[in-house]
Amino acid sequence: MLEINNLTKSFGDMVAVSDETFTVREGEIMGLIGQNGAGKTTTFRMILNFLNPDNGNVLWDGHKLTSADYNILGYLPEERGLYPKMKVEDQIQYFAQLRGMKARDVRSQIDTWMDRFQVKGKRTDRVKDLSKGNQQKVQLIAALIHMPRLVILDEPFTGLDPVNASILEDGIKMLRDSGAAIIYSSHNMGNVEALSDHLIMLRRGEVVLRGTVDDIRQSFGRTKVFIESPLTTAQLQNFAGVKTVRQEGKRQVLTLTDPAAGREIFAAATATGYIPEFSQQPPTLDEIFRIKAGADHE
Q1: Helical axes 103-116 vs 162-177, angle rounded to 10°
Q2: At which of 199, 218, 237 does a domain end?
Q3: Spatial separation of the C-alpha atoms in residues 130 and 121, rounded to whole Å
Q4: For the chain, which terminal residue's Cβ has fewer other Cβ atoms within 10 angstroms, N or C?
Q5: Would you state the pLDDT for residue 298?
Q6: CATH code assigned at 15
């Protein structure tokens, strides 16, 4: 289990991370979200001993991480770093051997991993001859082929199209199912909702949200209504507790100031019988992110 206890880090007068505490258990995925500069990468660098915290500590299975624990780590930095003139297989083997794997074991697994992440190219291709997306997959394989127990992924979805993002999600879930503790950052809230068992949101280095995606969404109340009915936009706007109404194709999307307004709207919409759609939901994680980040700008 990874334990982060009261981590604080400043650079001059700027507090990058303030009193940060959380845990990630084996077989669990934690999403770390926040705007650029919120403290995500600084957190990762303190976990990895690249930076020393001003206060607090990082524990793995009850002890501080040392060089002896290096082989159980898998790390994908935000800044990609591959040797462009090396062959794919040599690149993967090089990093895997640094983590304690034998060359013959690495070479026997390369094809399996390239198939798993659907790398477009041959193992004998030079890295520079692959597309950026496939280079990213190669670096990910290099970080994961030794099946680490602790995985840290800094913006792993950057630059990936939806198909390749889904392939990466499957790979992360495979590692989770193998028992790895995984922590990653992303600006794509769709990825975060699909993957995270729980999440932390940082703003100016401070934790401003924590919990499961569902618990966080529910804490904001069911303030979104999706409705397709005979009621007009003007009629919907006149209900007490309705903040905004937006037409979206055949349906209207309402934002409520009071979730209780949904009951009255439903009763009016169904007064003459069946309607094709009525759904009252909490805001999406993306909307919540904008709400919390927006407070920062204000």
Answers
A1: 130
A2: 218
A3: 7
A4: C
A5: 38
A6: 3.40.50.300
CB crowding 205-234: b at 16 or more within 10 Å, else e: bebebeeebeebbeebebbbbebbbebeee
- Indicate the number of domains in the chain: 2
DSSP for 95-151 reads: HHHHTT--HHHHHHHHHHHHHHTT-SS-TTSBGGGS-HHHHHHHHHHHHHTT--SEE
Which residues form the domain of 92? 2-218
The residue assigned the tokens 């898998």 is: 74
Is residue 27, in this structure, part of any structural domain at all?
yes
The residue whose two tokens read 């607090």 is 56
Query: What tens digit of pLDDT does each residue of 202-253 get?
Result: 998 999 999 999 999 999 999 999 999 999 999 999 999 999 999 999 999 9
